[in-house]
Amino acid sequence: MKIVSRAEWKARPAKSKSRLHPDRVSKFILHHTTGTYGGTETVRNIQRFHQDTRGWADIGYNFLVSPRGAVYEGRGWDVRGAHARGHNSDSVGVAYIGDGKKGVPDAAKTSILNLLQEAQERFGTLDRMAHRDVGSTTCPGDGLYAWWQNASRTRSNALREEKAESEGYAYPDLRQGWRDYLKRMRDRRPR
After folding, report:
1. Alpha helices of the chain — where are they, by DSSP H?
2. Can you list the domains of the chain with their CATH numbers?
3. pTM to 2 decimals?
């Protein structure tokens, strides 16, 4: 996955930075910007709004995803975001550049899932949430939210199935696989 760096989109310097501690990260939170996408200028405008109007140190999100699937580095993997009050120190925030009430192109969805996979490789299994799950908002819009709930379950099940297959326990029905696993663990206990 190619990520457009801060230097490439000509980001302004951050006013300050707080480290995101990897051992605290437990959530991947999806947002939308509601605006329209017009290339790197849009990302610069979002940063300008966050820094100048909101008074934040930098653009609020860790990453942003365009409708065409381009991924832009916001604060990146190592810096705490400013995207979900009360959850910035334990989450990675990703924003879709556009209105999540409307249809979201497949290219953007693929990039969001790729960022989720990368985040989980870095931080371990994460709760997949939307901004509305942690705050009083309609973000990321009903359309994107519905897809995210379904994609999260589908992705989560696929990862569990991959792990089961790699460990030699392939089950089309994960519940049966879980029951068999528990039975094996019970059988191993000393009596």
Report:
1. 40-48, 106-123, 131-134, 142-166, 174-188
2. 3-158 (3.40.80.10)
3. 0.80
